[in-house]
């Protein structure tokens, strides 16, 4: 079983006629990869199945998967558009992985999910533990939907420190989930699933509302930074959600800083640019997160309305590398970010030596364990001399209209 990488993006940006033409071209190429006795079927959307009898199924199926990957990685010329895609493939072998069509399709689908989770352009054979993992994933998704409306999420904050004055200049909101049975669930475990299922959109709205409400209790010169997901831009609701969070909290728009990664922008640059442009005109600050890890060009950086560039922690770590080349590259990235004339924040600062180099290179801010780990809102209130925080922590505490909206989005 296989599906196409980036098909939804192609459909959304180039239109459904182009998407349909791509599916036809993919089917034609698949026919060149198989024997005459094999069967190809389109299961729906961009999913295809290939059924073939093999005398040595493991070796032959792997070879077939490689042929299909190579065939579908070549560009497709579709009228006015040249489209580049790829494929992820899941493989199930009968009777080892199932004795009827339903069992085999389920096994191949689970293997496909594993292949997609491993990165685009890969294939994976079914393994029995995949079924257990899928069951755990469904449970986690169910619990995450419940957490959104029952108050299990909370925000912690990590300070930004001005490298000239040494004062806290703002704080980044970081999502935490306290599960009633499992305890603290790592963001690395639930955020990717939230992205995949679309739950990141209502969760992201909760984060925006809560961060703004809690920031309203801080001194008025402190900004609050919130991370944005690509899915929030695709939902088309981001701008009104930000407007609503600012209005409900009463904080000045200049105190809100939205962080967006290079990768998120490259997925749908037109939609991102339109939304960020509207928000920037309102006075909201825009930060480019994880700078140096994507594929930004100078023209790209000039096009988008960034106020801040956050230098990825991987470069900060290399500032003290034993390899001179690594140190020089890391310094060059910091120097280039500073040269753009934006506020620059170095992420992941953990030592005084790193801090001294960043000051030497005229970096504006730092963030990292050298100054402070992320802290809960009560600890932050004490740190910055704020009022006691009384922001809503569960969607059930919101006004009825807003509560219905987010419960509907959460399913």
UniProtKB/TrEMBL annotation:
Residue ranges of every copy of the GGDEF domain listed in the record: 1-128
Transmembrane segments: none
EAL domain boundaries: 137-388
Pfam families: EAL (PF00563), GGDEF (PF00990)
Matches recorded under Gene3D superfamilies: 3.30.70.270, EAL domain (3.20.20.450)
InterPro entries: Biofilm_reg_signaling, EAL_dom, EAL_sf, GGDEF_dom, Nucleotide_cyclase, Rev_trsase/Diguanyl_cyclase
Name of the protein: Diguanylate cyclase (GGDEF)-like protein
Lineage of the organism: Bacteria, Pseudomonadati, Pseudomonadota, Alphaproteobacteria, Hyphomicrobiales
